[in-house]
Design brief:
By secondary structure, this protein is mainly beta. It contains two helices and ten strands, in the order βββββαββαβββ. It is 11% helix and 42% strand. Strand 3 and strand 4 form a beta hairpin.
């Protein structure tokens, strides 16, 4: 949207968005499992991932979050039908290196977060 700066892509699980030709934007690869469809878009300093499911998992590596930070994103938001979780990207980046894997799982109204295999539910 040229008015608000929001971008939106609707994709199926496991498929990754492709960069448009002549685009200077870096494609950030975050993956969702457990949802029939999901949508990712940026609204101001928030990157919002919405899964069309009650139970779903969002995962990627901290390098993905560093790329979002470079694009002006401060907060990663994960929404499912029964839960919304907002993660501060700076806090997440302090938990490991670029190749450290993070996993955020929503199961109904419950959520769990692991970073590098270590539980960090205190950030939820």
């Amino acid at each position: 949207c040229k008015g608000c700066g929001s971008t939106s892509v609707k994709i199926l699980p496991i498929m990754q968005p492709e960069a448009e030709e002549n685009s200077s934007d870096t494609v950030v690869v975050l993956t969702i499992t457990g949802a029939p469809t999901y949508e990712m878009h940026q609204e101001s300093a928030r990157y919002i991932v919405t899964a069309d499911s009650d139970t779903a998992t969002l995962f990627g590596c901290l390098g993905n979050l560093a790329e979002l930070k470079a694009q002006g994103v401060d907060t990663l938001v994960f929404r499912t039908k029964s839960r919304e979780t907002a993660l501060d990207i700076d806090t997440m980046l302090s938990l490991g290196t670029e190749d450290t894997i993070f996993t955020l799982t929503h199961s109904g109204s419950s959520a769990t977060l692991t970073v590098g295999g270590v539980e960090h539910n205190e950030l939820l």
